[in-house]
Amino acid sequence: MRYDLPGALTVTGEGAVRTVTINRPDELNAVDADLHRALAQVWRQLAADTEARVVILTGAGRAFSAGGDLDWITSFLDDPVARDESIREGAEIIEELLRFPLPVIAAVNGPAVGLGASIAILCDIVLISERAHLADPHVAVGLVAGDGGAAFWPLLTPILRSREYLYTGDRIDAPTAVELGLATRTVAPEELSAAARALAERLAALPPQALSSTKRVVNMYLSQAVAGPLQAGFAAEVTTMQSADHRKKLAALRGRAPR
């Protein structure tokens, strides 16, 4: 099957396994407009691939995804149409991942930050490199963690721990991510690809209807639990996107960013 996607998100296949790679390695796989749109669209295309049974999601280079691209996020300050489209697509990414019928294995090869962390955690199984970390620094840049963190983390982690990391944006190293329930298990960096592939092959050999139906039932709990918080989170994120605090934080970040 041919996939209609930009080069920032690639799909390769071997047998029944499809590997989706976030492919902006020079930018640490930061999410720009094209990549964001692709992350919303890829799941329906994968679901239409009748030979696919399992998906591996990973990042090219040394990061899984560093979150939102700074130039793209800054453009929202003066472009409310682009801002609102990003919110619509953000909701679509989460909804499509929750509806997607096949098991998805996240091979978190490096930092997974902001939206990158949300996408990783939404996968069915999260294998995280011992050198990787998670972080959700929305609040630190003047935003509500509306694209998943505030809605999903309290379902998976002790709520007191969720608050600390969501409020501060501090890094969560790989062992702590497993301890908190934000990742399944740690894997040595040099073994991550092989471990994800071996697990994918094992899942692909299982009866597909039983596997997909089990996923659907499990995800019913997630979908029902986060429906309200997600809507509230995205609405609050739009409001904070327009705040003076957010504008100041972005200006400070851009001033520090290498050119």
Summarize this structure briefly.
With 259 residues, the chain is of the alpha/beta class.
**How does the overall form come out from the CA principal axes?**
globular
Count the DSSP helices.
10
Overall mean pLDDT = 94
Q: What is the H-and-E element order?
A: EEHEHHEEHEEHHEHEHHH
Q: Sheet bearing the most strands, described? A: 6 strands, mixed
End-to-end separation in angstroms reads 39 Å
Order of strands side by side in the largest beta sheet? 1-2-3-4-6-9
Q: Give the helix proportion (percent range).
A: 40-55%
**Number of E-type strands:** 9
What does this structure look like?
- With 259 residues, the chain is α/β, with parallel strands linked by helices.
- It is 52% helix and 15% strand.
- It is built from ten helices and nine strands.
- It has helices at 33-47, 70-75, 80-99, 115-122, 149-156, 159-168, 174-180, 192-204, 208-241, 244-256; strands at 9-14, 17-22, 54-59, 104-108, 112-113, 125-129, 133-135, 172-173, 185-187.
- The protein has a six-stranded mixed beta sheet, sandwiched between helices. Strands 5-7-8 form a three-stranded mixed beta sheet.
- It is globular, with a radius of gyration of 17 Å.
- The termini are far apart.
